[in-house]
Input
Amino acid sequence: MTLRPVRIAGTGSYLPEKVLTNQELEKLVETSDEWIRSRTGIRERRIAAEGEFTSDLATKAARNALEQAGIEPSEIELIIVATITPDTLTPATACYVQEKLGADRAVAFDISAACSGFLYAMEMARSLIAAGGIQNALIVGAEKLSAFVNWSDRNTCVLFGDGAGAAVLVPSENGGGRILASHLGTDGRQTELLNIPGGGSCCPITIDNAEENLATLAMQGREVFKHAVNAMRRASEHAIESAGLSAEDIDLVIPHQANLRIIDAIVDRLEVSKDKVFINLEKYGNTSAAAVAIALDEANREGKIKSGDHILLVAFGAGLTWASAAIKW
Ligand code: UT7
Output
C-alpha cells in the first residue's frame, strides 16, 4: 500500500482573556515573582472564565485553524481532542467540540497523553490520512488546567495555565510540505511522578476525602525535570534522524512549554542555536496538551515559519509520555 504524505493546512489557537500574574499568585501562596521567573521563566498565565470549558477553548482554536485551512466544519471527517482536563469524564470533549462546530460528519474522540497529547493526535490523524481512510482531520490540544490545580500548593499552582491550539491535516500535494517523521514513547513505570490521583475509578471523590484535593495535579517536579530533558532530547534526535535530517537542517524548534531551563538543557544537548527555538511560556505557563499547538500557531501567524522550512515539534508529559515530529512546512 502506498502511503500518502500529509501536511498541516491550517493552525489556530485561543487563550482565555483573564491574565493571572506572578504578583497575583504571591497573594495566594508563599511564592515570589523572582522564584517563579528564575526557576521556570513564567511571568503570567491565562485562566478560563467560570462558564468557559475545555471544549469552548478547543472550539475557538479549531475555528481559527479551519478558517486558515479554508475548510468548512461540515467537511471535517475526524476530530481528535488531546486533553487531561475534559469537560466530563464521558462523553469525550471532542463530542462537545463536534456539536459546537457543527461538524456533523466527523468521528470524534479524545486522547489522554498529557503534554504529549497533541503530537500523539497528530500521528494518529497522519496515519489515517496517509492510509487513505480519511481526507482530513482536525486535531486540538485543549486544557482548562485551572480547574484541576490545587490553588494552595505552591509546587504546582504557579506552573499551569489554560488555552487551546489546533491544526488541520490534509493529504499533501507532490513535493509540498509534509510531516516527515514522528516518534512517540511511553514509560508506564513512572505514573506516580505526575498525576491527578483522585476522581477516577481507583479513587472516587467522596464526602470522606473531599477536603484532600485529590482531583488536582500532583508532581514530583525534580524527577519529572530529569526525565523531561532526557526523553525530549532522545525524541528530537529520533525524529530528526528518521526524517533524514541533521540538527543544523532544523529551522525552528517548537518544544513543550513547561520550563525555560528544560528547554535550554535540550537545546544545548541538541546543538541547535537558541534563536531557532520558539518560546512563549512566559505568557501562558504550562498548558499541557495545548502548549505545542499554541506555540505552533503563534510561530506560524508571526511569520516565523516559511514554506520549505524544517521544523521540529517535541513534547513530554505525564505517563510518562514523550513525542516528536519533524515537519517540512
Ligand atoms: O508538563 C509536564 C512536564 N512537567 C515538567 O516538565 C515540570 C518539570 N519540573 C520543573 O519544571 C521544576 O522541577 C519545578 C519548576 C517544578 C521546580 O523547580 P526546581 O528547581 O526543581 O525546585 P524544587 O522542586 O527542587 O524546589 C526547590 C525549593 C524547595 O524548597 P527547599 O526544599 O529547597 O527549601 C521548594 O519547596 O523551592 C521551593 N518551592 C518554591 N518556592 C517558592 C517550590 N515551589 C515554590 C514556589 N515558590 N512556587
Q: What stands out?
A: Residues 31, 35-36, 39-40, 115, 154-155, 158, 221-222, 224-225, 228, 258-259, 262, 286, 288, 316-317 surround oxa(dethia)-CoA (CB under 6 Å). The chain is about 30% helix and 25% strand. Residues 178-328 form a domain with the Peroxisomal Thiolase; Chain A, domain 1 fold (CATH 3.40.47.10).
